[in-house]
Design brief:
With 188 residues, this protein is mainly beta. The protein contains one helix and 19 strands. It is 3% helix and 49% strand.
């Protein structure tokens, strides 16, 4: 039996709350992207298994609360997870310094298919040698037939501009979570 999670605004953060008292018996993957009707968790209520599903029609990335774990009890209206809008999650992508080279890289926020250009006949979003500013779209990530822009957002304290190096993934190739997509050099 499916029970809809309660969607509440907790201090400005959309959060999912339990619709009943029970024992948690399964959880979706943390940071998984979920949509309307997707199962976030399963609980046992008096020995009967119930799926807890997302009530909204918007896609979110779920982040489970620290006190949520398999085998633990859950109370009515207890916060199960907070939600991050997929678009916000894409905007939160930052660069890291790789150990092999001292270049900055834009990382994939999740597994999917990465595209350099908005359409097959269009130019790439960025080209090698181009100077870009924070917030510049560098590609698209396709996940479950949904395309999300990948933007370069510098880590705090890093320069707000960079020079594009090379793409580390071919146009249209599959990528894994946190896989480097594009090399950048800090501009002076």
């Amino acid at each position: 039996m499916a029970l809809q999670l309660l969607l509440k605004d907790i201090d400005g953060i959309p959060s999912l709350c339990s619709p009943a008292v029970g024992k948690i018996i399964s959880l979706a993957d943390n940071n998984e992207i979920i949509g309307s009707g997707d199962t976030v968790a399963e609980i046992s209520i008096l020995g009967v298994r119930h799926q807890l599903v997302l009530p909204s029609s918007v896609q979110y990335r779920i982040v489970f609360a620290d006190n949520i774990a398999l085998g633990r009890g859950i109370e009515y209206q207890q916060i199960v997870a907070s939600l991050v809008d997929v678009a916000d999650a894409q905007d939160a992508i930052t660069e890291v310094t790789t150990d092999e080279s001292s270049e900055l890289c834009v990382l994939s926020p999740q597994a999917g298919r990465f595209y350099h250009r908005p359409s097959p006949d269009a130019d790439a979003f960025v080209v090698a040698g181009e100077e870009i500013r924070a917030g510049k779209t560098i590609g698209l990530l396709e996940v479950m037939k949904t395309f999300s822009p990948i933007k370069w957002i510098p880590a705090p304290g890093n320069p707000q501009t960079a020079v594009v190096g090379n793409y580390r993934i071919a146009d249209g190739d599959d990528v894994e979570d946190s896989q480097p997509l594009l090399n950048l050099d800090p501009s002076s």
